[in-house]
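CPA1 family monovalent cation:H+ antiporter
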Amino acid sequence: MMISGLSAVLLTIAILLVVVSAIQPVARRLELPETILLAFVGVLIGGLADVLLRTPLTNRFDDAARTLVQIPGDSEIFLLIFLPILVFQGALAIDVRRLWHDLTTVLLMAVVAVMVSFTAIGFALYPFTNMSLTVCLMLGAIVANTDPSAVSAIFRDIGASSRLTRLVEGEALLNDAAAISIFTILLHATTTHAEVGVMQAAWTFVVSFVGALAVGVVMGRVTLWLITFFGGTVAGEVTLTLALPYIAYIVCDDMLGFSGVVATAAAGLTVSVYGPSTLRPKTWSFLRELWEQLVFWAGSLVFVLASMLVPRLLFGMTGWDWVLIAVALVAALAARGLILFGLLPLLTIAGLSRPVPNPYKVTIWWGGLRGAITLALALAVTENQNVSAAVAHFVGVIATGFVLITLLVNGVTLRYLVLFFKLDQLSPIDSALHHQVLALGLGEVRDKTRQLASDLGISGHSVRHVVEHLDRRIADEEEANTFDTALTDRQRVTLALITAATQERSILLDLFKIRGLSRPVMENLLRTAEAMIDGARMDGRYGYVRAARRRLQPTFRFRLAQWIHYRFRIDRLLMYAMMERFEMLMITHLISTALRRFMQRRMEPMLGGRVAEIVSEVIERREKQLSAALDTMRLHYSGYAEALESRLLRLIALRLESQEYDDMLDEALIGEELHERILRDVETRRNAFDRRLKFNLKGGIEERIRRFPALADLPDAALHDLAMTASIHFAWPGETLLERDRKPRTVYLVSAGRLEAHIAEHDIEFGPGSIVGGREVLDDRPLPATVRSLSFGHLLALSRADFRRLVAEHPVIARNVMALPEAAVMPDPQVDRVPDLGLEERRQLMRIASGSLSDLRAAYDD
């Protein structure tokens, strides 16, 4: 009985998946990219099916052959079913923060290169054909988009430079988006026989690209917000990410008239940036694995199914078509070479792009492979009823031949080009570190092996044999070790800071597994940890310090809440912002303590005492600022600080408890049923922490105001009124509070911290108890100097009108303010418990907090 209909289609796809699985080990053994073998198998299957349909010898296999040939149906299968998956996963897999440093290079190779390539190919083909320029340009857009799958596979197999892989993948992602957007415009012009104006086409492209970019980012952020809002299971959270690319693609492509590919890519990049700090580590790991599996299925099927169309697209090919293919190839290589060897160096000279070595350029130039998307776009033209047969033949043949040659020539030889340029070798730093790590690691392995053998009672002869083998390997690595001579102290410090920041990120990811911690806090901490890694990579310890001090500065959300609190007397937003900042500082303090132990235990043996000492000094400076910020807040909210510390410790204890029961299950000490019952009990106790702690923003304010010398004589009713009127302002080092030659609109009461003004070669420091700006408001005159904060501080802010009203009701305040010395200090020395760093050190920290890179270099120079 013959199988037909949907059953035949599903059976064919299942068989193709079996073929795809078999191709993997074959490709690995032949050292060929999987996509090349997939394309070869697809062409073979398509050709065999086409022969069986056309042969008059037998019709027994016609149904099976027809199913194989017709299974792609039309281009919608590729562009609607597979393309969102491929584009979204490509964006999801990119390390956006590291790619950001090469953004100019990627944009040049993607957007600008597409413009140059499709124009060059179109104008090169135009004199050799009887096709219109619009058709030639449309073909140029079809073959302008590169396919990274084969190239990335080669780079991964031979361990090519990660930066080279990043550049190729980033180029291909945006390249597809730009090429398909241009193709859509030109296909519409071809089918409607309308003339394409350059300015109109450019405007349409920009609107489509920018609009889709905005929609994709918004949809990505909304999806992540829904994940946090619903707080559902892993399966539910991953399901939302599966729906995202299709919603973004279809809404933009069919409803808004924007580029669906650009929207999908933007959504994927957004999830890639914010996903690790929004999703739990376990969910994020499962999400990445699931999408890798989906893209393996989709990508493999696309290559096989698209390649099966090749015999159909090449049907009726002539010798002149090969000439046109050669013209298109030469034009594409010339355009790509112009970008890489002509325009890219100009960007480097202008300081807009990081230098790209010539071996990288040659590899990228030769690695511009085309693949399934090009075939799908060609198919969209050939099956379009509004396209003439001549145009369909022209596009189908040239595009298909172009793809085959790039795969079979460039794809096969690319591996040897990478090996020739030695791009698979480690960088000097990694190479020097390689032997150092192996020597230390093998020493640990040897000691643990000897101890394990003793515990298990293994014979001494066997132990000696294994240990002697490890000793020989250790001796070889120590002999080859050039770590101390190959790297300068500066390079080793940079390496140590990258390691420290990476370890901090690892600790954060482990803490992120603890339910009950604030997601915005964890997002901010993870982002700043990654910024410290990137900063150390780019600018050494100066970049690390610059990124680390940004963490201690109030976020935009905090500043906005503080402004709303001051302007509109709305406390709730600042209350929540304060709670998050308190939690952030607490967690950072815990991590800093763990990081110090990590440095002593692991980094000092590997990098040496001198490097560890320098890095410890950098981290200690950072810790001083952290302590100052945290102690300022503890000073006023000691009860909340203690409650928060207790909450964090109990959450950590619950996490440790869960891990202990997991270990018992792994060791078969308890069964699965008992394990689940115990974990349910732990989960019940953990759910009690879903309720947030109570926080009183203005707690103890009246008592604080009572200690100001200028306000000591106020009655209780006036103190209460002032406490309700004053706004709370948390200052940070380097913040400008009042500007010179301007009448102050705000009067600040310094509760904790230090402010400074510089007047005529004379520094005035305001400490706790000072009323800053009060004299100027009373005299209605401008400030003689700019007032800045030297440290983290707790201030009470009164508007000019409120301060005047207070003085009018209680004239004694005016007399007290005018009688105060320029730098007043509270009489109770226990009130100001912020660490006294000394004036010069506070000024240095203020410069670090608000200065440029040159200030940082001066402050942290040895």
